[in-house]
Specification:
The complex is a heterodimer of chains A (365) and B (504). By secondary structure, chain A is an all-alpha fold. Chain A contains 15 helices and no strands. Chain A has helices at 2-10, 21-42, 47-59, 62-87, 95-113, 125-152, 158-178, 211-230, 232-242, 244-249, 254-281, 292-302, 310-323, 327-331, 337-359. The longest helix of chain A is centred in the middle third of the chain and has 28 residues, at 125-152. The radius of gyration of chain A is 22 Å and the shape is globular. Chain B has 504 residues and is an alpha/beta fold. Chain B folds into three domains: 3-250, Rossmann fold, CATH 3.40.50.300; 255-343 and 421-504, 3-Layer(aba) Sandwich (Rossmann fold), CATH 3.40.50.300; 359-419, no CATH class. Chain B is 35% helix and 24% strand. Chain B is built from 19 helices and 21 strands. In chain B, the strands form four sheets. In chain B, strands 13, 16, 17, 18, 19, 20 and 21 form a seven-stranded mixed β-sheet that branches. The two termini of chain B are 41 Å apart. Classes of the chains: A mainly alpha (365), B alpha/beta (504). Chain A binds chain B through residues 1-2, 4-6, 8-9, 230-233, 235-236, 238-239, 242-243, 245-253, 362-363, 365, and chain B through 12, 15, 17, 37-38, 40, 42-43, 46, 51-53, 316, 336-337, 340, 346, 348, 353-360, 364-365, 367-377, 397, 401, 405, 418.
């Protein structure tokens, strides 16, 4: 009683209280769209034109559709991985580092099997690519478990542990690019020496999209949906995420559960990083993650940690990203506009959810 | 300044937290406000200090009605409150905290004057505080001292202290008590909120006891103090006071035991040379053997270590020394999972914080309990089991009802429904707190049924009737000591009161 006393006086009834929860969510979405239009208007264009150009930029040609899919695949992997950590109550901002380290591990594998100039090796190229993806996953696991151990055993906030490890992973990548793995002759920010074309992942026609990456992304998503809905593991994760203490008292091995979440997220992110290497860039570059991890965080927050909605939202975000690349050329606008749009949508979606929780009419029961 | 509260009422939802409470604190006195958790004492002082607004009633200060609607109002009337968790700014330094919130703060801070003032106040009360230390590096006791001088510097003439002796050292307690006595002599009124009898007896001139939202008695302690008992330790007079206060807190007549005999011969839980230690308590139990089917009631004022004891028996805390055997197996310092496997179950008092998971439904809780069976959730089995639990435990909810939407009684029923079977040792805090009489009877029926199946129960309760009614034996926790077990049938209100006061 004493504990609940104080908030009573601190929450004056809101003038907008008592509406059905969906009203707040839809309202927030509408407001965010209005603000998006406003931002476009202020930057000197008509919202309709911009949206038209963005749609054109994302789906106008097969090449562009390919790039949307090439962005979508690793995004699905990251978002699926983050479903585990979010449901376990963890803000795994370290997902970026896990992508990067996965990419480093994959690059290392390929360089080991096919040193520069070599055309033949123990493993034929397809097997080498498969192994690189696998080792990339292991690298992601290592980076994820490191963050997990710092959090679980070192009692460091997983946010700080993750961010710190992100810097470390990027640092290692840059060191490798400029040091041991530098291009013959000149080290440059454009990355390591590209791999031989035989080590590139096959694509749909002449586009950037690779079927293997898309398949892995979709598979990760489907597995995640299944795990979260149908397994005891998923239920235990949700229990731990909502009330660690009570879950522990009820007999859930909480530490193991938290570490598993880091492990799975690391695995998916590491595979995504490996795919960036073998499928998109064909070398290691400093920003190999392309901020897909952060984008994944936005996606999962937007869908309220429910994996069922990840595919449409992730697809929308991928299209937004690729579509906005056309803006500087055709309209002279900053391509970072897509970032502003994404940010607004996510912020208002979260705001709508918060308002719905705080003021929404409770179901009778 | 005389402080008067007249006919205060306050409701929180269906709970009548303050029911026609009147209290008068004379200037220059230390007035104790005593009662168990949930008795309504914190609510009352928060009303006086403006943190909570009252539903009805009057606050009269020095004969004049006062309009207190916020903490700032209260401060203007010179009422300062020291909260159980100090409300300060840990990242700032001591002197910065001291200057913060001063009603007369000019646009420019005069740090030097503030520091002079601060040092003078500290000297007066023998507080040893470094003005430039960070508050985050201070102990709770030191933060309290800081709060006191800050409130005094801001002109507080009435000081309210909410459970101030929780978490501070013995030396700090002595310093605190001396400072409070000094302030009372200067004519300030002090309200000392506590559930610790010995602190109230040692310090207060007068004590008001609250129970279930009402004032149940007042006692002037001055006449008892006159004989200088402080010098010679506890005297008979001291015990007389204790007995009278305990009587007020718990009522005079004890209920009669109603529990049938359920215990068997074999020992299921054995504790030997157990030493329990927390940052403010140290307790020892030489030997305790609990038989199958036996119920042990744990009495004592709240915060006397009952929870630590139960957590230790549950394997959620480790003892500093000694051994724990369950069903013949040595579980000393074994992980919690070993205790679970041995059939030990702990039901916490704070159901939504420690026992159930908000956001998950009854069915999901049931499934969670089944979760060592395979990979995929057996929905049909979980649904069936949830339906069965709802029917047998009479839970008002559906399998898909989220637990936080259940009433307190139904949450407790859900907790009981989740108890594993077979069960060797059941540890509970306040098994029927917040339940109506019917539900209480019903809960105990279920628990006694478990005893018949061989489960031993240890439960802590602040309801002495419950303890006497349903226990086979009772142990009493008092000020870091644990009494030997006594058969419930041999207890009287008087003997139990004296034990709670520390005489055994």
């Amino acid at each position: 009683m004493e504990g609940t006393a104080a908030p009573q006086t601190m929450n004056p009834p809101a003038p907008i209280a008592g509406l059905p929860p969906t009203v707040y969510r839809i309202g927030a979405f509408v407001i965010s769209l209005i603000l998006v239009a406003l931002v476009i208007f202020i930057s000197g264009a008509s919202p309709a034109t911009v949206i038209g150009r963005m749609v054109g930029g994302a789906f106008g040609t097969a090449d562009q559709i390919g790039r949307v899919i090439a962005t979508l695949s690793p995004l699905l992997l990251c978002a699926a991985g983050l479903v585990y950590t979010f449901n376990a109550g963890l803000y795994n901002l370290g997902v970026e580092g896990q992508i990067t380290f996965g990419a480093i591990a994959a690059t290392w594998t390929l360089r080991l099997l096919y040193p520069e100039g070599a055309t033949a090796s123990l493993l034929p190229p397809p097997a080498a690519i498969a192994l690189a993806i696998l080792v990339g996953g292991v690298g992601g696991i290592a980076w994820g478990l490191l963050a997990g151990a710092l959090h679980v055993y070192g009692r460091i906030s997983e946010i700080f542990a993750g961010l710190g490890l992100n810097f470390a992973a990027t640092g290692i990548a840059i060191y490798l690019i400029f040091g041991p793995w530098k291009r013959p002759g000149v080290a440059s920010l454009s990355g390591t020496q590209p791999f031989d074309e035989s080590l590139w992942l096959g694509t749909f026609g002449r586009t950037e999209a690779t079927p293997v990456a898309l398949a892995l992304g979709l598979m990760a998503l489907i597995i995640t949906i299944g795990v979260m809905r149908n397994t005891y593991f998923g239920l235990r994760l949700r229990a731990v995420g909502r009330n660690l203490r009570a879950a522990y008292v009820l007999g859930v091995p909480a530490r193991r559960q938290l570490l598993s979440a880091f492990l799975i997220c690391g695995l998916f992110a590491g595979v995504a990083g490996a795919l960036q290497v073998v499928g998109v860039f064909h070398r290691l570059i400093p920003n190999i993650s392309s901020n897909l991890g952060f984008l994944g965080l936005l996606v999962v927050m937007l869908v309220n940690f429910d994996p069922l909605w990840i595919l449409p939202v992730a697809f929308f975000f991928s299209a937004l990203n690729i579509g906005s690349l056309q803006l500087p050329l055709s309209l002279g606008l900053e391509s970072s506009l897509s970032g502003v749009i994404q940010g607004l949508l996510v912020l208002f979606a979260l705001l709508g959810r918060g308002l719905a929780q705080k003021y929404g009419r409770k179901p009778e029961g | 300044m005389n402080v008067e509260l007249r006919h205060i009422h306050k409701h929180f939802g269906s709970v009548h937290a303050n029911d026609d409470v009147s209290l008068t604190v004379a200037a220059g006195t230390i007035h104790g406000l005593l009662g168990e958790n949930g008795a309504g004492k914190s609510t009352l002082v928060k009303i006086l200090s403006g943190f909570i607004t009252r539903d009805s009633g009057e606050i009269v200060l020095g004969g004049q009605p006062a309009h207190i609607q916020s903490p700032a109002d209260a401060l203007r009337y010179g009422i300062g409150m020291l909260h159980q968790d100090p409300l300060d700014f840990p990242p700032l330094t001591v002197i910065e905290n001291f200057m913060a919130g001063s009603p007369a703060t000019p646009a420019l801070l005069n740090a030097r004057a503030a520091e002079r003032n601060f040092r003078a106040l500290c000297r007066q009360f023998h507080f040893d505080l470094d003005p430039h230390a960070r508050v985050s590096d201070l102990t709770v006791g030191e933060r309290q001292q800081l709060e006191i001088v800050r409130l005094l510097a801001n002109g507080a003439g009435t000081l309210i202290l909410d459970e101030p002796t929780t978490g501070i050292s013995a030396t700090q307690k002595t310093l605190l008590f001396n400072a409070l006595r000094q302030l009372a002599q200067e004519g300030k009124s002090i309200i000392f909120v506590s559930h610790k009898l010995e602190d109230v007896e040692a310090l207060c001139d007068c004590v008001t006891v609250m129970r279930r939202g009402r004032v149940v008695g007042e006692l002037n302690l001055r006449p008892y103090r006159a004989n200088g008992q402080d010098a010679h330790g506890p005297t008979d007079q001291h015990f007389e006071v204790t007995a009278r206060i305990v009587e007020m807190m718990f009522g005079k007549e004890l209920a009669l035991p109603v529990k049938p005999t359920t215990h068997q011969d074999d020992v299921i839980l054995r504790l030997d040379g157990l030493l329990l230690r927390s940052d403010r308590l140290e307790m020892r139990i030489e030997h305790l053997a609990v038989r199958r089917g036996e119920v042990i009631g744990i009495a004592g004022l709240e915060g006397s270590g009952q929870q630590l004891f139960l957590l230790t028996c549950a394997g959620l805390e480790h003892p500093a020394a000694g051994s724990i055997h369950v069903d013949g197996r040595d579980l000393t310092r074994k992980p919690y999972s070993a205790f679970l496997k041995a059939g030990v179950c702990y039901l916490p008092a704070d159901r939504l914080r420690d026992g159930l998971i908000s956001g998950l439904s009854i069915q999901e809780h049931v499934a969670l309990r089944m979760s060592n069976k395979g990979l995929f959730i057996d929905r049909a089995a979980a649904a069936q089991e949830a339906e069965r639990a709802i029917a047998t435990f009479n839970i008002r909810g559906r399998p898909d009802t989220a637990v936080e939407q259940l009433s307190g009684g139904n949450q407790q029923r859900t907790q009981l429904a989740l108890m594993p079977s077979p069960l060797n040792v059941l540890l509970m805090e306040h098994p029927t707190r917040g339940l109506d009489i019917e539900s209480t009877l019903w809960v105990w029926q279920q628990l006694i049924a478990r005893c018949n199946q061989g489960t031993a129960i240890l439960f802590a309760s602040s309801d002495l009737d419950e303890i006497v009614q349903y226990s086979d034996r009772v142990i009493v926790f008092s000020g870091g000591r644990i009494s030997p077990p006594i058969a419930a049938a041999e207890l009287t209100a008087d003997s139990l009161g004296q034990m709670i006061g520390g005489r055994f």
